[in-house]
Design brief:
The chain is built from three helices and eight strands. It has 146 residues and is α/β, with parallel strands linked by helices. The two termini are 30 Å apart.
Length: 146
């Protein structure tokens, strides 16, 4: 087996608040494990399922934070995730409306796509990426031209 990332975890000081945030923003579904302060995250169609069948995305978990939440402006401590979306401008704006804050503004990156980072309501940074630049050019289509 290759050394692929197959699971991610988000830490939350107030887990129900982040369950609501990510459900509303990205349509993810959460299932709590019994009485544990841990929720499985199903990111939707195309993710690797519980049988290990390959997909083009991964699922994760949400765990109760064991310490203070990150300070605003603090450096990233650990890893962060980047979520591929179709309409990055709409999802970014929706994230702000749901209580997220801008970490890095949306930016076109030639050859890559359009990228931006938000802080969720608990201070966790995460990225959004779309292959479509603000001028409508699709970087995935251009890769196929080479």
């Amino acid at each position: 087996m290759a050394n692929l990332v197959v699971h991610f975890e988000i830490h939350a000081s107030d887990p129900p608040k982040l369950v609501d945030f990510y459900s509303a923003l990205l349509g993810w579904t959460f299932t709590q494990f019994g009485d544990m302060a841990y929720w499985a995250i199903d990111t939707g169609e195309g993710s690797i399922n519980n049988t290990g069948a390959p997909g083009s995305g991964i699922n994760g978990g949400l765990a109760e934070r064991r310490g203070p939440r990150p300070e605003v402006g603090a450096p990233v401590n650990g890893c962060n995730i980047v979520v591929g979306v179709d309409d990055i401008d709409a999802v970014f704006a929706k994230g702000l409306g749901l209580g997220g804050t801008e970490a890095l503004p949306l930016e076109d990156m030639e050859g890559i796509g359009r990228v931006g980072y938000l802080l969720d309501p608990d201070g966790n940074v995460f990225g959004l990426i779309s292959p479509v630049l603000s001028d409508g050019r699709n970087m995935m289509e251009r890769m196929g031209d080479n």
